[in-house]
Amino acid sequence: MQNIIDDIAAQMALMSDKGKVASYIPQLACVKSDQFAMSIALPNGEIYNAGCAQTLFSIQSISKVFTLTLALGKLGESIWNRVGREPSGDPFNSIVQLEHEQGKPRNPFINAGAIAIADIIMQGHQPKETLAEILQFVRFVANDDSIAIDEKVARSEHETGDRNASLAHFMASFGHFQNPVSAVLGTYFHHCSIAMNTMQLATAGLYLANNGINPLTGYPVISAKRAKRINALMLMCGHYDGSGEFAFRVGLPGKSGVGGGILAIAPGKASIAVWSPGLDTIGNSKLGTLALEMLTQQTGWSVFGD
Ligand SMILES: NC(=O)CC[C@H](N)C(=O)O
């Protein structure tokens, strides 16, 4: 396994087109695009790393996997009254479907869906309390208490968050929100700004690769059925309008973030985190996707077979 990921990292270093770093969140535009990291965590506790696997990056939309898990834990299946379970086929920050579909976002991984999930989790509490709960959960599954929010990124998102504010206000206009829009947005911007490295992220995803149980601690995080369903959503919706392409090339449930990270789950086999900040035109990590494609080709881990 170490040879496989060392080889992938070496090949990535040779790529001339590493994609473009996100610039609509100014703080993310400062990140150097020539960085690459990959970590593969196995349910038996082994972890394999290549590249700058200790460098922290902004997990952005990957946080939506953790907030979805929390929301399901708090409110169970009733969350599906507020958020759908279908791929959107539209960009992550699109507003168009909301008008035709009574303010109900297609899925929990597009921005509108994740903002609705933030509202669901808050249950009348302040953003600070909700964020403490989200962080506590991420630290628990990553088995690492040092994980924190990057306040600079959160502020940067807030200052340039007109599109997300539009989505939130538009949904609120249908009477769906239970908390003030500004508080929901504050929660959303901050959970997107959690900073992690690939080692922490791969470890955090292990419960999804291991039937809902964190193999490092032995704690059941969620039921096996719920883990299966979250993986299904990641496969269908985790890369927005690039989800079909990701399934075609990589063949794993995966969730991308505009910070250049991807969390991919090979059920029963591994949790994989990859980071390379340069993005493709859809907003998914260019080299991250390529690295995962190489990995599934070499390991036969695609859920669709060799
Ligand atoms: N694709 C992403 O990672 C988007 C998340 C980012 N925080 C946003 O709201 O735009």
UniProtKB/TrEMBL annotation:
Any Pfam family hit: Glutaminase
Enzymatic reactions: L-glutamine + H2O = L-glutamate + NH4(+)
Enzyme Commission code: 3.5.1.2
Chain residues that bind substrate: S61, N111, E157, N164, Y188, Y240, V258
Keyword vocabulary terms for this entry: Acetylation, Hydrolase
SUPFAM superfamilies listed in its UniProt record: beta-lactamase/transpeptidase-like
EC main group: hydrolase
InterPro entries: Beta-lactam/transpept-like, Glutaminase
UniProt feature coiled coil, ranges: none
Biological process according to GO: glutamate biosynthetic process; L-glutamine catabolic process
Keyword Hydrolase in annotation: yes
Domain of life per record: Bacteria
An MF annotation (GO) of this entry: glutaminase activity
Quaternary organization: Homotetramer.
PANTHER family the record matches: GLUTAMINASE (PTHR12544)
Similarity field: Belongs to the glutaminase family.
Protein name: Glutaminase
Biological source species: Paraglaciecola hydrolytica
Gene name for this UniProt entry: glsA
